[in-house]
Amino acid sequence: MRHPRPAALTAALLTCALTACAGSNASGKAAGPSITTSVPAATAEVGVITWNVPAGEPPTLDPARSAIESVSTIVANLCEGLFTLGPGYRPEPALATSVEHPDPLTYVIHLRAGVTFWNGDPVTTEDVLYSVQRILDPKLGSSWIGWAAHLDGIKATGDDEITVKLKKPDVVVPNFFAMPAFHVVQKSYAEKAGKDFGTAAGGVMCTGPYKVDDWAQGRQITLTRNDAWWNPARPKVKEVRFTFVTDPAAQVAALAGGDVDGQFSVPRAAHDQLAAKGRLLYGASLATTFLSVINPDGALSDLATRQALHALIDYQGIIQSVYRGTAQPLRALVPPQAWGYGRDVYQAEYDKLPQPAQDLAKARSLVAGSAKAKEKLVLAYTPAIEEENRIATAVADAATQAGMRVELRPLTAEQFGAVFSSPQARAGIDLLLSSGYLDFPEPLAYYQFFTTGNFYNFGGYRNKDYDVAIAAATVTDDADARAKEVAKAQAIMARDLVNIPIATQYVSVYHRSGLTGLVPRQSYLNTPWAAELGGA
């Protein structure tokens, strides 16, 4: 779960970006812009493209620290894991060719032979083990350490083989083999660079389709194609220059004027303008925007208060006026696009949950009958994200209409980041508006955060039945059986309203005419998306 910043997309042979292909909501009704599931593959080479990163210049290119978009958008093209995510978010071989799962506690990973780093040195099991163990060092402070909660050990068990042993079964673990938790860097290079590894001064050494050519701090990062990449699907674009324009108006001017060739997370106010100039594509995402209970002891300790909040939100108004139709309301925290298995099970249980709709009369009635609901609520959010600024204001306004008192507390970027790691930073906050996403389509990866005692369970939610369902799902390999347990926990959470899902917003990407090959998917943050681009 990360802040901007985890059903799988089906790679059908459609070209929705070029034809009138309508998106749909959970009930199957047409809604919003077209969703792109496939585009023509790139066929022509391109010399240079300029790509903007709206989150700004990254502080590092170390894959161990790639849990924020400014880093991951670039590093995804540089460094590789043992596996990668394919078009349907399914793991595909990368630096490993296969994995065996002989028993619930063991994963035997077979490494690809003949892979070299950018400097020509071969990738060894020692490099792989070093990279994984480096993530596990608490002193490094990598957020990817979380995968290893049940790790017993990892070691080389052959010339091109490593074995991961767990203390207890955990079905979420193999998903991380395609994540930066298992991205491989060269041991000798990283040790020599020391604390400068990943910086403009120290550089980075990986195996991916692009390598760092130049980092002109404050201006741009330039990547050049790695012609020795092990993958025969060589990139068509020879050089990618990343710029870091953060002002939305300046982004639009650069894109519309042709100074920048493309960008993810396009400012919504300029969608119509840019769509008339190049290719503006949308993809269903694994992201969700929601309100979460931070203080369970104040006004929110009364279920009626939480129910009133759920009833007063104008979901459709937010979808249309804030997201301009590029999002859909949610009945549960995890969006349907993240159902990577057991889809029929998840759909049946999801359909039983109440459809989100504003009901001010219901909210007023709940507030009238609850003394707690009349107490002041402090809603924290980040004004740096335009959509969340507007949502927070809309929630506060609707709360006033329902007879509630919601005080808005805008947070700086530093304050907002601290909320996720410091109890002191959460003091005085009742509700937090935030957006997060799954890195892979496993609902369990999100729902496990709300079990009793979990580090990310900021509101201290406790429900024995919820914990039992999540624990059962964690050790269940059978897809439908696991989905039933997760859906059971999902229903409990929806009833208790420990968080209030608002919307899942689409992934958007714009690039100039003449380019093709890039389908918008959430996985652009962890897979080499630039390798797909090229000339039409």
From TrEMBL:
Family the entry assigns: Belongs to the bacterial solute-binding protein 5 family.
Location of the protein in the cell: Cell envelope
Highest taxon of the lineage: Bacteria
InterPro entries recorded: Peptide/Ni-bd, SBP_5, SBP_5_dom
SUPFAM superfamilies (alphabetical): Periplasmic binding protein-like II (SSF53850)
Pfam families reported in the protein's UniProt record: SBP_bac_5 (PF00496)
CDD domains recorded: PBP2_NikA_DppA_OppA_like
Domain Solute-binding protein family: 91-454
Protein name: ABC transporter substrate-binding protein
Stored PROSITE patterns: PROKAR_LIPOPROTEIN (PS51257)
Keywords linked to the UniProt accession: Signal, Transport
Keyword Transport among UniProt keywords: yes
Signal peptide (from-to): 1-22
